[in-house]
Design brief:
heterodimer, A: 117 residues, mainly beta, 6-stranded mixed β-sheet, B: mainly beta, 7-stranded mixed β-sheet, 4-stranded antiparallel β-sheet
């Protein structure tokens, strides 16, 4: 069975601070995909990143960066120089890989990030 | 282009009533997913369609829940004889054909059972 653990439930930072959101996953699959989604107060889940289990390269996109470490089954997300607009609930998710097919997502419980001015 | 559209945005029903929730996926997206999100929790998978075929319904909590996508586009999630524990946000997502493509979510339908 697949499982995603986001141990942090709520994080509060002051604007311009850096913040890291932790994600630990469990799966028996050798091939899988990891995702991060953002859910602002409006409710819509916004896709941020997808990572294949074979690709352990870290990724940076503007103020966002992701650190994938297969050895510790972690896929952590860092926001640099946080802004008030980053306030949202952030979800990490995992899906199995079926050759050429889409698959359901298993989500963690989410981390509520509050960025204060 | 237009994103995933869900209607109604809010639905209030009395216990025992039947409800129908609609999802209009992104045009051309062959995969469609339904999730249930309880307050303060992450979304939980309900069911998955590839075109009109329902390939996975393992997440449907009971036989009161039924989903269809007859023409491979719009989907309807129906809940019969609603109960209070059915109160949640129901999210629909669609994705392009391919391996584990990113799922794009609608705003959800917030269902409240009185």
């Amino acid at each position: 069975a697949q499982k995603v653990t986001q141990a942090q439930t709520e994080i509060s930072v002051v604007e311009k601070e850096d913040v890291t959101l932790d994600c630990v996953y469990e799966t028996r699959d050798t091939t899988y995909y990891l995702f991060w989604y953002k859910q602002p107060p409006s409710g819509e889940l916004v896709f941020l990143i997808r990572r294949n289990s074979f690709d352990e390269q870290n990724e940076i996109s503007g103020r966002y960066s992701w650190n994938f470490q297969k050895s510790t089954s972690s896929f952590n997300f860092t926001i640099t120089a946080s802004q008030v607009v980053d306030s949202a609930v952030y979800f990490c998710a995992l899906s199995e890989s079926f050759a050429g097919a889409n698959s359901k997502l298993t989500f963690g419980k989410g981390i509520t990030l509050s960025v204060r001015p | 282009g237009a994103g995933v559209s869900q209607s109604p945005r809010y639905k209030v029903a009395k216990r025992g009533q039947d409800v129908a929730l609609r999802c209009d996926p992104i045009s051309g997206h062959v995969s469609l997913f339904w999730y249930q999100q309880a307050l303060g929790q992450g979304p939980e998978f309900l069911t998955y369609f590839q075109n009109e075929a329902q390939l996975d319904k393992s997440g449907l909590p009971s036989d009161r829940f039924f989903a269809e996508r007859p023409e491979g586009s719009v989907s309807t999630l129906k809940i019969q004889r609603t109960q209070q524990e059915d109160s949640a946000v129901y999210l629909c997502a669609s994705s392009e054909e391919g391996e584990n493509q990113p799922q794009h979510f609608g705003d959800g339908t917030r269902l409240s059972i009185l």
